Amino acid sequence: MGSQVTAASVPDEERTAFWNRTMSRTLVPVEVAPRGGRPFAGHLASHRLGYVRISTLEADAVRISRTPALIARTPQAEPQVGVGVQVSGRAVLEQDGRRAEVPAGGLVLYDTARPYSVDYPEPFRTHLFHLPRRLLGVPERELRQAAGTAVTPDEGCGSVLLPFLSTLAVSAPSYSAPVGDRLAGSVADLLSTLVAQLTAERAADRPHAANDHLVRRVREHIDRHLCDTELSPETIARAHHISVRYLHRLFEGEGTTVGRLVQQRRLDACARELGRRGRTAPTVSAVAQRWGFVNPAHFSRAFRAAYGVSPREWRALRTADAG
């Protein structure tokens, strides 16, 4: 299901208000401020691909801002991660004191839970991808480090991510719901990889880089062994030839514990799988067991605590959203 909006028939004096309403309703609440003295023209096409919203915006020079006041108006809104893929023209994004200049062919990542602004100083075309931040399964600290960083096709996973997202934006309306759900999962996985790459690059420039490298190795080990019901701080420490005490100390600065991290990564994996549609969708208990939850009652309690709904309610909501 998709929508297309243009301001061609809107009177000149009403276009700014029209675009404020349109973009806030389609994406997240923002302020739209045209640049230049001429009437503001634009076209917005938007589609859903599973839990990913893909929008293509083509417009005159404009500044788009997500202000603290707009964020405060909807405190219950689920935080979204946004990615802008610049097709033509330039973009300048500012978030968390970081300024990213995005040329045509590049991309930039941002977090809608915190204020940001994007300047388009000339006529432009861009693809915007929005998806629930929780489904990336990355710590907020890492997302803060990655947000507001421009990536070009010749940088790291940009060579894979940019062509994939560009093609997906054009072809999104053609996919069936089951295929769209799987592709949405691929988008989340690739963006998680992008965040990991960007935070790794920043960590290499900081003191204690050796510890950061070990933390990344532990995280990768956890992700590889989520299905193992024996996964625990003891087995993780043993696999890395360190003491359990030292393992816990490593994660003191991460804002979590090893046990909570394992549980959250398992819950994120379950949430992604439960949100995908298909004729042979596995049962909730089968999904829980596949990702290392032995006790169904414990899984249901933990899932509700993390997501605010039961696993079955989550599946029903995500299936409805995907339609």
From TrEMBL:
Q: Which Pfam families match?
A: AraC_binding_2, HTH_18
Keyword Membrane tagged? no
Give the matching InterPro entries. Answer: AraC-bd_2, AraC_XylS_family_regulators, Homeodomain-like_sf, HTH_AraC, Tscrpt_reg_AraC-type_HTH
Q: Which domain of life is it from?
A: Bacteria
Alphabetized SMART domains for the sequence: HTH_ARAC (SM00342)
**Native species of this protein?**
Kitasatospora phosalacinea
Query: Which protein is depicted?
Result: HTH araC/xylS-type domain-containing protein
What Gene3D superfamilies does the entry give? Homeodomain-like
Alphabetic keyword roster: DNA-binding, Transcription, Transcription regulation
Domain HTH araC/xylS-type: from-to ranges: 216-317
Extract the PROSITE patterns matched here.
HTH_ARAC_FAMILY_2
* Keyword Transcription regulation part of the UniProt annotation: yes
